[in-house]
User: Fold these one by one.
Assistant:
Number 1:
Amino acid sequence: MDLGLQGKTALVCGASRGLGYACASALVAEGVDAVIVAREPRALDQAAHTLNEQGAGRVIAVAADIAAEEGRVRALAAARELRDAAADAGFDIVVTNAGGPPAGNFRDWSTEDWMRALNVNMLSAIELMRATIDGMIARGFGRIVNITSTAVKAPSSYLGLSNGARCGLTGFVAGVAREVAPHGVTINNLLPGTFDTARLAANFQAVADRDGVPVESIRDKRREASATRRFGTPEEFGAMCAFMCSVHAGYLNAQNILLDGGTYPGTF
């Protein structure tokens, strides 16, 4: 299926590895020109090199902290590089993605811990939307995909910081997405289940350390709890993200797409 994205521009956050990289890869394969952002320069440069070798879309790497204003300014300015400094340069697609806050017991979290989580996993995404959405409206096309968490639908006690911040972003999106929809702009959230990434391994390790058990037992237990008896692959996640950004997904808006193999037991 041709997703109709040839020549579009995208900003993909947290794209040096894992699910962010998978989203960038799927978009670039469709001919999207992308600015990829992450904090670690070496891994990001390697990711950009690999993506540019695909030979479809052009990729520019910006090593920056997207949760900081200075990082956002640098990432957003790179849109002009993709469009040779055109006056109307802007992103047609924005994929927000930031590593989740640490797991733990809510009794141990300070106000500073909460503010940091809110900034990274809620406010930074809102700021990126604020900076790009009017340009999308003016061009008559825009796709914003926020990579959030299954915690939005099935909160875990040891991920309380993530529960709070990501649910806050979800509530914000529910309102603004309906405001911009008449202009060809959609905003949706993509909720990853158990995908085989370094982040998942870190979460397993946190639980193993808390409970004093081998991490392999945590991993095996989680795998068996999955409806598919396996973890998802980053490539599957990237493909879903690319479709949500496509011209075919214009009627998909203000939704929380849970990609977990059917493991979540609820009806809604």
Note: The chain has two domains: 9-193+235-251, 194-231.
Number 2:
Amino acid sequence: MSPLPQLQAVGRIHSPYQEKFSVPRQPGLVTAGEARLQLLPPFDDPLTLEGITQFSHLWLIFVFHECLAQGWQPRVRPPRLGGNQKVGVFATRSPFRPNGLGLSVVRLRGVTQDADGLWLELEGVDLVNGTPVVDIKPYVPFADSLPEADGGFAPAPPTTREVIFTPAAQAQLAQASAQHPQLATFLIQVLGQDPRPAYKQLAEDPKEYGVHLYDYNVRWQVQDGRIQVLALDPWPGSQA
């Protein structure tokens, strides 16, 4: 058998998700919020992107870099089965895989270039900030979209929860919107997915949670089945 090629990152994701806890469980569930892919040398040559804007969506092949040290598991607990039932790793999109590779389809908003390099402007990203991308491929609808396919135990996105803001959070949101105009919509989409473990979603849970999005510690809890945003505190050391 020929040796496998050494993987090399062609780019790195810049996204609002500063930790795994907040990342949507599938691409496309959250469309607000800025996400960009910065191409790395020697792949930051504009010739590598020639013709790419003819496609509305792209496949990103990436590395679950924050999970590599934990190794892989032959059986895992997918969130869509409640987080307690185990199935084979190859029947899931779990990050605990033999080679730690993931696959996401994202919307391409455009290509930009500035003093920092060459960028793909993206929407619908489900990747933590700093994720290495090892390949980019165009999404081709006639081959990649199969409406008749069976979705197994994950046939449709989960229902979303209503998201409300306390008066204190609303005031902080108004200040933050100058830098992030879509922040309110972004928080509603992200928190509406209910980032908590599946088993937590089925019981009373008075716990206050915090999630690192952009440069904020977004504090929230569940009350009467709704997600209530309590505060948007600047993350320690940030310029927010």
Note: The radius of gyration is 19 Å.
Number 3:
Amino acid sequence: MPDETALQQAQDQLNALLEAARSGQIIPVRLPGQIETIAELLKSAQKEHAQALDEAASKAGPADMDAYMQDEAYFVGHAVHELRTPMTSIRGYTDMLGSMGELNDMQKQFMGVIKTNIKRMEGLLADVSYMNKIRKDTLKIEKKMDLFKNIAMRVEKNMETVAEELGRTLIFETPDGLPLLMTDGDMLALAIGKFVENGLRYYEGDEGKVTVSASADGNTLVIKITDNGIGISEDDLAQLGTIYFRADHDVVRQYKGSGLGIPIAYGLVKKLGGTYDVMSTVDEGTTFTIRLEGMS
């Protein structure tokens, strides 16, 4: 099995926080930093697993590799579950602390930072879980008849808070007469959401905008996610989709991302039987295009 050091450290620190919550010994001013440390340990653990998997792939035969991937998928899935359990309890205790009376301005600020870090940690755990399932081909895809208009509404609901927090404009253009889909609407909405979030975050200025548009090319649904952000250089485009890759740009580095969003989106589109491509111009923006065959 891969080295479990970073993952075990994350688990130990979460367990310590949970015990502190149970005994009323949480120190609010320290909690944001503690959660941040756990998030970084989790990212390190996932990188260790990815490196170990790559090393195993170069050495093992097909049968050995299949067995290794099954073991590794089980381990990461189990680890994510074990980390989510105390995080849920910590979030509950934090909500309880916030309702125990009037808070002063400093306490409100601490609670806001704590909740932001918990939300980020939960998002990271979800991303690690999705990436693990995509890489090991264990992600469940449940296809059913769906309209893109319904899927777009899910994306809008999931992303509107992010757009508001960042002060960005999010536009959806979904005309009538689009091809009917046989797909997993939740997974498609998740993939589009990853592209949308990428566009919302990486912008300099006060007029950031992301547009999700759809059109029909015969019986093919064409979805475009266009932003007017910082764009992506040719060198970075060549690495886009690589797990943990993040561009070396000040705007990108100011957000504590995991480098899993675009790889997850690409993996989901492929699992759904679609194709994707990207066009980008530095300082002008980026367009991701998804193509999915409609029902015959």
Note: The first strand starts at residue 144 and ends at 146.
Number 4:
Amino acid sequence: MTETDGQDNARVIAGRYRLRRHIGGGAMGVVWEATDELLDRTVAVKQLLIPPQLTPAEAEQARKRSFREARLAARLQHPHAITVFDVADDDGKPVLVMEYLPSHSLAEVLAERGSLPPAEVARIGAHAASALAAAHAAGIVHRDVKPGNILLGADGIAKITDFGISKAADDGTLTGSGRFAGTPAFLAPETARGEQPGPESDVYSLGATLYAAVEGRMPYGDTDNQMALLYAAAAGRVAPPEHAGPLTGVLDRILQVDPAARPTMAELASELGKLALLAAPTKADTAPPKKTSRRRFAFAGAVLAGVAALAVALVILLPDWAGSGAAPNPTSSAAPPPSPTTTTVTETASHSSTPSANPSSATSSPASAVQAVSDYYALMPRDTDAGWERLGPVLRAQGKAAYVRFWSGITSVTIVGGPRLVDADTVEVTLDFAFDGKHSRERHHLDMIESDGKMLINRDSGPL
């Protein structure tokens, strides 16, 4: 297999993987879209390239290490990691057979857009961090986290790829010849100094990746001089972020020179997931820089207790609301939960002058949106499965496990204001949450979307 497109696409690898078209490549390998003729499915086939400067003995060692590392990567199964299906041998060269995801890499997106909003960067980071945390728990260190190894699908999902591959084909640091394998632009300081990379190194590299995404520039400066970048990386010289907003504090902690001072990948995944929801803009966010922006940042960056802890977790896990129902009567209370429960959900009358909140002028769609919010809280915290089904894709990005953990700490939730429409597809609701004998009252704006005839809650602006 070669990098020459169109010359080799009739080849069949390992008797079953027929190459179709060249879709990418780089220092570590060439990637093809292919057909698994045994299972009749589309896959991505990547042949790992052995650095040409290696001696024959070093090349043989690299080949063996490639197979070993690839088999290790194949053990990882995670919704935000590209799955490795098979490790094949192509005339002594290791070939990975992977999940095919129609996508663009984060590197390609940044080349086109320059930078991304903090909420979008937090969401991408949360996806990647959740997969990396699972990898670390399984004893797998990625070693090459960078924008080119984060794939973004059309549905907004982010998946990380190439686990362990840079280590497999080379040591990921300086080779015996003094030549660097790959760019040092996203290396952790300890890796740039030639030390063995560990989970903390992946944390730093993900932080450097998120820095580049939100700032629109490389963490160690925009230069093509690899040795200059390596020197800056070894020293951990990163200019303070200027456009990161609520991500600033997180980046500061991730990009610590001392590996022990960085959060774990699991902690990072949780914090980024919270920030993705707290910082996400909604159509109801018409006021200038809201106090809630700073409030969200402060919440996400601190160790929370009591009411403050609830406020943060709330915005992250509250998103399980949505559904369909008959048009409500704004002057009546919401229907009680279908079965006895400790959750008390009532709806107060809304006297807003907003036309759509008036029954005489409301259409069926706005009424359904309001009813969906009432119906959602009638389920919570008792029925998290049903609640999860009432979420849109943006809020589902938090992951169901985190959602269930949040609601397990809530005793009851009561609607004390609204719900009411504030624009065509945004519902305002004021809630009282009870937990550990304490209460927290919060006002939320919920962005609603329709899917298969149901109204789903797609975004939550957080406590207003």
Note: The chain has three domains: 12-99, 103-278, 291-460.
